[in-house]
Amino acid sequence: MNNPQRKRSRRDDRGSASVELTLLVPVLVVVLALMVIAGRQVSAALITQDAASAAARVASLQRDPASARTHAHQAAERELTDRGVVCAPFSAVVDTSEFEPGGVVKARVACTVSVIDLGGFGGQRTLTATSVSPVDPYRGQMP
């Protein structure tokens, strides 16, 4: 009445879920770690873009090219620091060649970060971003 082969096949499947889970967990942990690393790198790139945008905007509000460059550099550095991105080295280059009413100011921010800070395994990565902001076309005009 009881088939011995049938009983044996039922016993053979016991514990297979535990083995499958044991094999699957390390793979899932690696995938999750890669997702976190990618997310942190994208976040740092977006923060660098925000710093370039802030630099261009602040520069476009200044009255002369020299103060535009100074204030833009400070704004970019402050944005990166406030958001927790540590750059070594850091540069903010501001193009004020079109610094006139109706012109534009271009800011380029470059930030070299340690990949370990972003959740990676070592080395460095340079993040760069460029932004453009218009200079008020009515600057210096009386109403």
Number of beta strands? 3
Alpha-carbon distance between the two ends: 104 Å
Stretches where pLDDT is under 50 for at least 5 consecutive residues are none
Residues in helices, as a percent range: 40-55%
Radius of gyration based on Cα positions: 27 Å
The total number of structural domains is: 1
Can you tell me the overall shape?
elongated
What is the chain-wise order of helices and strands?
HHHEEE
- Main β-sheet, spatial strand arrangement: 1-2-3
DSSP strand content:
15-25%
Q: Which class do the helix and strand fractions yield?
A: alpha+beta
Keywords: Membrane, Transmembrane, Transmembrane helix
Domain TadE-like: 15-57
Transmembrane segments: 21-39
Protein name: Flp pilus assembly protein TadG
Short recap of the structure:
By secondary structure, this protein is α+β, with helices and mostly antiparallel strands. Helices cover 50% and strands 20% of the residues.
Structural notes for this entry:
By secondary structure, the protein is α+β, with helices and mostly antiparallel strands. The chain has one domain (15-134). It contains 3 helices and 3 strands. The chain has helices at residues 4-12, 16-60, 65-82; strands at residues 90-95, 104-114, 124-134. Strands 1-2-3 form a 3-stranded antiparallel beta sheet. Strand 1 (90-95) and strand 2 (104-114) form a beta hairpin. Helix 2 (16-60) packs antiparallel against helix 3. The longest helix is centred in the first third of the chain and has 45 residues, at 16-60. It is elongated, with a radius of gyration of 27 Å. This is Flp pilus assembly protein TadG. Keywords: Membrane, Transmembrane, Transmembrane helix.
